[in-house]
Specification:
The structure is a single chain. The protein is an alpha+beta fold and 583 residues long. Helices cover 25% and strands 27% of the residues. It is built from 11 helices and 26 strands. The strands form 6 sheets. Strands 1-2-3-5-4-6-9-7-8 form a 9-stranded mixed beta sheet, with helices on both faces. Strands 14, 15, 17, 18 and 19 form a 5-stranded antiparallel beta sheet that branches. The protein has a 4-stranded antiparallel beta sheet with strand order 23-22-25-26, with no helix packed on it. Helix 6 packs across helix 10. The longest helix is centred in the N-terminal third of the chain and has 20 residues, at 2-21. The N and C termini lie far apart (78 Å). Bound molecules: zinc ion. Zinc ion is lined by residues 159, 179-180, 211, 239-240.
């Protein structure tokens, strides 16, 4: 009896370890890859015949060369694998996850062939029990950096597995075009476009598996890279980046109403400690960097500009993604996801994510041509450009600066480290405490100097970030410095309330207004008042301020179409007036 019990105890301990690890026996199918990841290689072996490495040329090249038609062609091919559940077929040449990963790897190999064999490709393989399959593979391509000194890698990823209504349905039709064919094709297209260019640091393009069953592929990467001591500058996780329609269900904070279309916004989720809008972390600083790059260096060259919404949470309520295992290992990581999504992950009818209906589009008149595309090629291309430009610039940008920052009179003095020469200009971003915005309130550039003096216009408390800019490549922002000034209180600070621009705007079915309030306003009566342009009150509603940040909804029945201003009345006084347009 005794030995038997001992065996049982030993086994249960073993299972407990396996369960916390999730994946074991991790290895790279290509032995050269580990040397690239660690910076232990000769960059000359991976030089292209023509070197294009000027950040401005690379950026404009990526903006020009991301190809919507090519991405749509790849999405159509991806659909033919029928089912990409992590437990699906690995023997067939045409269907199942095995055939699909072979196809992704062959795409990376073809890209490499077209570019002087510059890419190092393969699989990160690992064991984990997912829907009865025990062995799994993450396809990847590495573009080795041209400088191995203080070597770092940058990761662009999007999971390629899918799931159906049934979590372990390994047979049924599971196209997964938006979730996450869109992210998969984004990664494949950037491998093609970016392989023509040269970067200081190494870029890892990868499509992990097992996301829908518990982030297995991303956990394997994060754990493997961390065990190997690989330094990662940034991780961009793309999951649902092509759809533009709002479904009947979606996880909050979510899109406005069923059928709403939006191809002009994208959400960036990232971790930060605390639950207020002062939220800060390296991840939020990366999201702010992405917004800056999109606004300054991408949007002027797009016919349809893209607006980045920096989100408070690490993901939507009750949902998760592949950025989290990287963050948990101490790496800087964000999730990129479309503004509108169709589905809350439960496979609820009539929504599309995690169902047989997550297809490219609909043939409405039966002529064999899709008339309505659920994944919008232009939108997917814009999100692809965002990833490529941000990663491309960061792959050649100088390291973060750590400066000394001191408050002085109505401003600050920034002193750069002795002998620091790694910038032509310095970018300064400021968030005002009382604005409670997740975005910078002000951002500007100053000429490089050892000592920089900046005046701050108003408010007592400010958060200041600095980033180096060298040869057209801005680096990541520093951690935020908290600056306390002894300036005169502004009007805004006396009231301390802030109403944000409604979203969406213009709107027709419903819209959301975000409101932030300091402690003294919580549980005090307030009224939202909407006026037409000659000042008549056309709608008002009581507002319950029961938290530091609340959302007020307006519905189509509240207003007729037109241009309006809205304001909040608290203690009999109106606070702020914001313009909105109802269709
Ligand atoms: Zn997904």
């Amino acid at each position: 009896m005794k030995p038997k019990i001992l065996v049982c105890v030993a086994l249960s301990v073993l299972f407990a370890i396996a369960d916390t690890l999730g994946q074991t026996n991790m290895f790279l199918s290509n032995p050269d890859a580990i040397k690239i990841l660690k910076g232990d290689y000769n960059p000359l072996h991976y030089r292209p015949s023509i070197i294009i490495d000027q950040p401005d040329s690379v950026r404009m090249g990526i903006i020009r060369e991301v190809d919507q038609k090519e991405q749509t062609r790849l999405l159509n091919k991806l659909e033919t694998f029928h089912n990409r559940n992590s437990g699906s077929d690995t023997l067939s040449q045409t269907t199942g996850i095995g055939a699909c990963r072979t196809w992704i790897l062959s795409h990376f190999d073809q890209v490499s062939k077209n570019n002087n064999n510059r890419l190092v490709t393969g699989y990160l393989e690992f064991d984990a029990d997912i829907c009865t399959k025990g062995h799994h593979k993450n396809p990847f391509a590495l573009l080795p950096g041209m400088d191995t000194a203080s070597h770092e890698i940058l990761v662009i990823e999007g999971h390629f597995d899918t799931r159906n209504e049934g979590r372990c349905d390994t047979e049924g039709y599971t196209p997964g075009i938006d979730d996450n064919g869109s992210g998969t094709i984004l990664v494949m297209e950037l491998a093609r476009v970016m392989s023509k260019y040269s970067f200081r640091h190494t870029i890892l393009f990868t499509t992990p598996t097992g996301e829908d069953e518990g982030l297995f592929g991303a956990k394997a990467w994060a754990e493997f890279l961390s065990l190997q001591g690989v330094k990662i500058r940034t991780v961009l996780n793309n999951d649902i980046v092509g759809g533009i329609y709002c479904g009947k269900t979606s996880s909050p904070p979510s899109c406005p109403y069923f059928g709403h279309a939006d191809s002009t916004h994208v959400r960036i989720f990232s971790y930060s400690s605390g639950n207020s809008s002062y939220a800060n972390s390296a991840h939020k600083q990366l999201a702010r960097y992405m917004k800056y790059i999109q606004d300054e260096l991408i949007n002027p060259y797009l016919s349809t500009p893209l607006t980045i919404n920096i989100m408070l949470g690490e993901d939507r309520t009750g949902r998760g993604g592949d950025h989290t295992p990287f963050r948990q290992k101490g790496y800087t990581a964000v999730r990129i996801i479309s503004a509108n999504e169709h589905g809350n992950g439960t496979g609820t009818s009539p929504d599309r994510n995690h169902t047989t209906r997550d297809v490219l589009g609909k043939d409405l008149n039966g002529d064999g041509i899709l008339d309505s595309l659920f994944v919008n090629p232009g939108y997917l291309a814009r999100n692809t450009i965002l990833n490529g430009v941000v990663t491309g610039l960061l792959a050649s940008a100088p390291d973060k600066i750590s400066a000394t920052v001191e408050a002085k009179n109505a401003g600050v003095v920034i002193k750069l480290p002795d002998g620091y020469k790694n910038a032509n200009e310095i970018i300064i971003g400021i968030r005002k405490y009382q604005s409670k915005s997740l975005e910078f309130d002000t951002i500007f550039k100053v000429d490089f100097a050892d000592k920089i003096e900046v005046e701050l216009s108003s408010g007592q408390k400010n958060y200041l970030s600095i980033a180096p800019l060298k040869n057209g490549a801005p680096g990541l922002f520093s951690d935020e410095y908290e600056i306390n000034l002894t300036a005169v209180e502004s009007q805004e600070q006396k009231t301390g309330l802030r109403l944000f621009q409604n979203y969406p705007n213009p709107w027709s079915e419903s819209t959301i207004i975000r409101l932030t309030a300091p402690q003294e306003y919580i549980d005090k009566p307030a009224v939202l008042q909407v006026r037409d342009l000659i000042g008549r009150v056309v709608h008002q509603q009581n507002v319950v301020i029961d938290a530091e940040e609340i959302q007020i909804a307006l519905r189509s029945t509240d207003l007729h179409p037109g241009l309006f201003t809205y304001s909040l009345i608290s203690a009999g006084k109106p606070i702020q007036s914001v313009l909105m347009y109802k269709n």
